[in-house]
């Protein structure tokens, strides 16, 4: 049985790690290079680095920060934010990333998932999906996207782009299935409603996606207790669990989570 992965996430804004609640009210959490070094030594299975304002600010990802972080870690390292074309992906991989996370760029060019997975291999391509529970239907009409992925009366979660700022009018579960079919090697699925709330992962959203696709799914948004990690992998069937606030601000350590999961008979890479 494959081991479940524990992944700290560095949300970076203007060169600093930040963390908010439901994608707003950001507060400083530290220096990305120092934090990357710490998590590598602590036994994280992977590390995710997201430049969360690159797309909304219409700028490129901070390549020098990515390179500095990559020099400090010896675990798989995923980078996302402001990546729009094949050349951007190449530059990130050359800067030390092992994988690249694509989000906003896919809505204007869905073929980039297929093209990049063919060029670099699907193991390098992560489709990041920021999803929010629908309370009222968006009037957004997606461009360049097939109507079969547009939200309808059966849709429960809508996809948002540009760091959670822009509704897309796209059904999150259908989109995840499409991304897997296009060649994404992994789905990074974030519940915007749960983000930073520390009330637990959105198990319903997770199961709705994991029931539909065979590629690995990373659960994101909501960790507040060690039991939440267990529920994400057992009930939500997530292959990996990502967290930020609980690790950044010392609620508990990666080793504590791993020991708890190991003692709960969840397959995990032991580092304690």
Keywords:
272 residues; alpha/beta; 8-stranded parallel β-barrel; 10 helices; 12 strands; 31% helix; 25% strand; globular
What can you tell me about this protein's structure?
With 272 residues, this protein is of the alpha/beta class. The protein is globular and about 50 Å long. The chain is built from 10 helices and 12 strands. The two termini are 20 Å apart. The longest helix has 11 residues.
Quick structural overview:
The chain is an alpha/beta fold and 272 residues long. It has helices spanning 32-42, 63-70, 86-94, 104-108, 111-120, 172-182, 203-210, 226-234, 245-248, 254-263, and strands spanning 5-13, 16-21, 24-30, 47-51, 77-80, 99-102, 125-133, 157-161, 166-171, 186-191, 217-220, 240-243.
**Helix and strand run:** EEEHEHEHEHHEEEHEHEHEHH
How many helix segments? 10
Q: What integer is the average pLDDT? A: 91
- Approximate helicity band: 25-40%
Query: What Rg is obtained from the alpha carbons, in whole angstroms?
Result: 17 Å
Q: What gap, in angstroms, lies between the N and C termini?
A: 20 Å
Strand percent estimate: 25-35%
User: How does the major sheet shape up?
Assistant: 8 strands, parallel, barrel
Q: Major sheet: order of its strands?
A: 1-4-5-6-7-10-11-12
Query: Would you identify the regions where 5 or more consecutive residues have pLDDT less than 50?
Result: none
Class per helix and strand makeup: alpha/beta
> Looking at the structure, what is the overall shape?
globular
Count of individual beta strands: 12
């Amino acid at each position: 049985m494959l081991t479940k992965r524990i992944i700290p996430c560095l949300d970076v804004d203007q060169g600093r790690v930040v963390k908010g609640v439901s994608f707003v009210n950001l507060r400083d959490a530290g220096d990305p290079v120092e934090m990357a070094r710490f998590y590598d030594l602590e036994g994280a299975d992977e590390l995710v680095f997201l430049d969360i304002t690159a797309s909304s600010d219409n700028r490129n990802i901070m390549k020098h920060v990515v390179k500095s972080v990559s020099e400090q870690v010896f675990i798989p390292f995923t980078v996302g934010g402001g990546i729009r074309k094949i050349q951007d992906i190449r530059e990130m991989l050359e800067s030390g990333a092992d994988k690249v996370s694509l989000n906003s760029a896919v809505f204007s060019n869905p073929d980039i998932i297929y093209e990049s997975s063919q060029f670099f291999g699907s193991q390098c391509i992560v489709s990041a999906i920021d999803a929010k529970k629908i309370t009222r239907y968006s009037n957004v009409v997606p461009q360049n996207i097939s109507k079969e992925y547009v939200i309808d009366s059966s849709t429960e979660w809508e996809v948002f782009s540009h760091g959670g700022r822009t509704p897309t009018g796209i059904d999150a579960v259908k989109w995840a299935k499409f991304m897997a079919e296009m060649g994404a090697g992994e789905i990074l699925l974030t519940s915007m409603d749960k983000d930073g709330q520390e009330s637990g992962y959105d198990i319903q959203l997770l199961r709705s996606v994991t029931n539909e696709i065979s590629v690995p799914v990373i659960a994101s948004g909501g960790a507040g207790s060690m039991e939440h990690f267990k529920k994400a992998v057992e009930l939500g069937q997530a292959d990996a669990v990502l967290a930020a606030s609980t690790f950044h601000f010392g609620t508990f350590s990666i080793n504590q989570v791993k020991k708890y999961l190991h003692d709960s008979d969840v397959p995990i890479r032991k580092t304690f």
